[in-house]
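Problem statement: downstream parser choked on a complex file, so we are re-checking the raw output for the ketopantoate run. The parser issue turned out to be on our end (a line-ending mismatch), but while we're here, posting the original submission so the record is complete.
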Amino acid sequence: MSGRIVIAGAGSIGCFVGGLLALGGEEVVLLARPRMAGEIAAHGLTLTSFEGWSETLGASRLHVETDPAAALAHAALVLVTVKSGATEEMAALIAAHAPAGAAVISLQNGLNNAALLRTALPGRPVFAGMVSFNVLHEGQGRFHRGTSGPLVIEAGAPPLVAPHLDILAHPDMAAVLAGKLVYNLNNGLNALSGLTLRQQLADRRWRLLLAAAQDEALAVLRAEGIQPWSLGKVPVTRFPRILRLPNFLFRLLSRRGVRIDASARSSMWEDLERRRPTEIDELQGAVIARAAALGLPAPVNRRIADAIRAAEAAAAGSPRLDPDALRRPRS
Ligand SMILES: NC(=O)C1=CN([C@@H]2O[C@H](COP(=O)(O)OP(=O)(O)OC[C@H]3O[C@@H](n4cnc5c(N)ncnc54)[C@H](OP(=O)(O)O)[C@@H]3O)[C@@H](O)[C@H]2O)C=CC1
Ligand SMILES: CC(C)(CO)C(=O)C(=O)O
């Protein structure tokens, strides 16, 4: 890629992807909040992965800006890596400061961020992207990748290459993001459990809740005529059946799926722990709204969304719920 790549929102995904692009020789500018800029100035970036590799970029190899005008002025490509609630604000900064021809790629969860950016940035080339893997911010400039999977970018976007990243182009990002939404319905459950992803998915009671939430979402996607894309060989539509299997069968089958290291947790768990607003409106909220528009039920997603909103309001981190607390209330 020729020209400057600006990471619009240097957090977990931004520092990890931006750091690897810089490592590969790209000209990268990290647009960061002052706190993150200070952390990077003090420690540089250390990027690690469940695969066992570790890469260090000293602060002198990184270009970090806290001023959006300075960061965006000479951008050829902007990768949007803020949480969904900050997309509009970042779109306004891009509109004000980035060159008109700069391409924009959303690397966010949720179905609507690329559309939101397109509306806010008329005439600019805007593309959807999807990060299938998890990155945890461990402090002191350390970012750890805890799960396997590629970075998927809409076909037609400027091609990206970075060491350690498997980057695929896909023509149908609506299908890709729908598939990711089905995965991401576990973010809230994982955050409520306070467990690592491995511990949580090893407990069939959590899996039954996830299967029920996914069934509701799959019914909505079916009614909308969207076939969700699957990351692996198993179609997303089969997930609920697999999740409902007894533990020993689930363990056997999941060995062939996404690789998850022992410490990995969802980004929503990190949001609750850091007292930040979550993306529940873009995940469970999207299923609930679309189900309502179609006259379909979504009671499980509703209970999960309510529990996350209560945890946000309590501002006490993960409530470490027992899964039985989320089961249908007895009448
Ligand atoms: N983390 C993960 O494992 C995964 C995340 N995703 C998705 O990627 C997206 C980003 O998530 P993640 O990286 O975890 O989020 P983070 O909150 O870690 O990173 C976003 C960063 O952007 C900063 N930011 C927000 N607005 C601005 C601004 N105007 N100027 C400069 N910095 C700004 C935030 O600072 P502050 O908080 O202070 O506002 C924060 O540091 C989300 O949509 C998420 O769902 C997808 C797959 C996996
Ligand atoms: C990678 C995955 C699915 C992990 O839960 C995620 O998207 C997230 O944490 O936001």
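For whoever reads this later: The pocket of ketopantoate (ligand 2) is lined by residues 109, 133-134, 147, 183-184, 187, 266-267 (CB under 6 Å).
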